[in-house]
Design a protein that fits this description.
- By secondary structure, the protein is an all-alpha fold.
- Helices cover about 65% and strands about 0% of the residues.
- It is built from seven helices and no strands.
Amino acid sequence: MALGTYLLPEKARLAAALVCIGALIVLDVLSFRRRTMCPITFRRQTPKNLVFRYGNTRGALIWGLDTGLAVTTFRISAATWALIVLGLLNVAPWWQGIAYGVGFGLPIAAAILLVPPRPDREDGTSREPHWISGMLNRHRRFAQVVTLLTAVVGFVAVAQTVAS
């Protein structure tokens, strides 16, 4: 609403969304074929030493906030950008942001609350459970396919709306 995109005709907003989603799908296909991450995200990872600097609970919270900003770290897909575009164009429903936040926050909360703590090192710092990142990396290609298919379904839905 603050950008005033609601003042544009609906067909123009939908057409712009269609072009943007189409371009993002192309980027996702390219990154899938090259076995890379999304090419338009920042090439940074949330610092792992936050837990060492701020403790398990505060460090995890800061890590989750930084990661949850959606555009400040690596992403496997351009789907995040598609959601932002749909929101800015006033095409997506208001609850899209809540759904994204829940979909992103629940796994983080589960990792924080359910992963058993590992024994501390002799110097008092905690050890990182590396099996989590290994598991996520093993399933990355599957996640890329799922987000790509979701983007294609969204593209088709918007295309049908524009055509009608």
